[in-house]
Amino acid sequence: MNNHILTTKNIKMRYEASTILEDVSIYVEYSDIYGLVGKNSSGKTTLIRILTGLIQNFNCNQFSCYYADGHHIRPLCF
């Protein structure tokens, strides 16, 4: 078992004609601390909204959330 508690592959998000996120992949390890930095209007808030389930209309090859013991908790993400 790997220690990933959050895995996303190739998130893509568009608003009308603008691409907000393009092929964003994230692997969050249990007990690690992460930061999300970037320029204004670079998609940080959109990414957090996708990860927390506030935005559900996006394209993604894989989106999985897990407890540290490996139990799948996708309903908490969406």
Automatic annotation (TrEMBL):
Where would I find the ABC transporter domain in this sequence?
21-57
The name under which this protein is listed is ABC transporter domain-containing protein
Top-level taxon of origin: Bacteria
Q: Which UniProt keywords apply?
A: ATP-binding, Nucleotide-binding, Transport
Q: Which GO terms describe its molecular function?
A: ATP binding; ATP hydrolysis activity
